[in-house]
Specification:
With 337 residues, this protein is an alpha+beta fold. The protein is 28% helix and 21% strand. The strands form 4 sheets. It has a 6-stranded antiparallel sheet, covered by helices on one side. α2 links the parallel β1 and β2. α3 runs parallel beside α4 and α4 runs parallel beside α5. The N and C termini lie far apart (54 Å).
């Protein structure tokens, strides 16, 4: 049976949804509920656009009637990959109800050039902009998918470089943020695999479809390599920042400069090629570079356990320009002191 289905009664659905959210926010004191999305990927044969639109309008009205609409943002569409018609329809019909729109993608892989990723998100941003709203990448991963839950490259080191390159392209294209599904492995089915940043308890993998995974694990909740790369982004690319794309002249090396709300700069470069690349980095907006700490995601230098990547060196300002070498298949992050 399908575990996500269209409700039989929109009013009942909206009342139940709003009641639960109101209880969690006002009575339980939850501060982590910021946005609401009615359905995961509704375009995937769950509810057609012509019925999703009125349902979202009913939900918006109910949240207002219950006095909690100002406490949450409605993040609508939640469409998948190339099914942009759903996003465009939501932008056209729900401009008054939505606070922002989001899409999911699992179509990009190791052979996908930056220009393809950029074009995909630029089109999403443009669609959302017709409603005067921003676009968010609500889920993303690689295209190494088997079914709805399994990604065969989940334990590969190179996946961390790919995830960073995708995020950099999304931000450069105008996305206001990204969200990775999910942090820790969860149970989908007896023979289903996983796509999370962290593994679950070691005992849960004793009967995993991969007979060697249990023996390879030594502890509960072990991070996968991609966690160390993605955590560099979550640590230093913060809400409210401004994004300035870097043109590196290479379809498989992506870079961006980010200015935080406090004025501090962060520079991210993901090199997915098989050779070391060198770039002269100068910030003309601030008249040159300032001293930076350097963090590197590199296969032979990953932390132990759940430790975060520590700075490997500190660059001092010298003539306003840094010559940055980025090793093959690695990520480098420079953060202003």
């Amino acid at each position: 049976t399908n575990w996500v289905v269209e409700p039989a009664d929109s009013e009942e659905f909206a009342e139940s949804f709003s009641t639960v959210v109101k209880h969690l926010i006002e009575r339980r004191g939850y501060t982590c509920i910021k946005e609401l999305t009615p359905f995961n990927e509704p375009d995937g044969n769950i509810i057609p656009l012509e019925r999703y639109v009125p349902l979202a309008k009913v939900l918006d009205r109910r949240l207002r009637a219950d006095g909690i609409r100002d406490k949450v943002r409605l993040n609508l569409s939640d469409n998948t990959d190339t099914r942009r018609f759903f996003l465009e329809g939501c932008a056209r019909e729900l401009s008054q109800e939505a606070d922002l729109f989001n899409s999911h993608t699992y179509i990009f892989g190791y052979d996908t050039p930056n220009s393809t990723v950029l074009a995909w998100e630029e089109a999403n941003v443009a669609a959302a902009a017709t409603a005067g709203k921003k676009h968010f990448v609500g889920e993303f991963g690689s295209n190494q998918c088997v079914g709805a839950t399994r990604q065969t490259d989940i334990d590969r080191y190179d996946r961390g470089v790919l995830m960073t390159r995708l995020v950099v392209n999304f931000l450069n294209a105008g996305a206001i943020g990204t969200s990775y599904w999910s942090l820790i492995d969860q149970y989908y089915g007896r023979n289903e695999s996983y796509a999370a940043m962290w593994r679950y308890m070691r005992a849960a993998y004793r009967q995993d479809p991969d007979p060697g995974v249990y023996d390879r694990l030594t502890d509960d909740y072990q991070p996968r390599p991609q966690y160390y790369a993605y955590s560099l982004l979550t640590r230093f690319v913060r809400k409210g920042s401004e994004v300035y794309p870097l043109d590196l002249g290479n379809e498989f090396a992506a870079g961006t400069a980010v200015r935080a709300a406090d004025g501090r700069w962060t520079y991210v470069i993901a090199n997915a090629t098989d050779e070391t690349l060198s770039f002269d980095l100068k910030n003309t907006l601030r008249g040159g570079m300032s001293a930076c700490k350097v963090y590197v995601y590199e296969e032979r230098r990953l932390p132990d356990g759940d430790e975060l990547i520590a700075p490997s060196l500190q660059l001092e300002n010298s003539g306003g320009t840094f010559c940055v070498g980025v090793k093959a298949r690695s990520v480098i992050v420079l953060t202003q002191l």
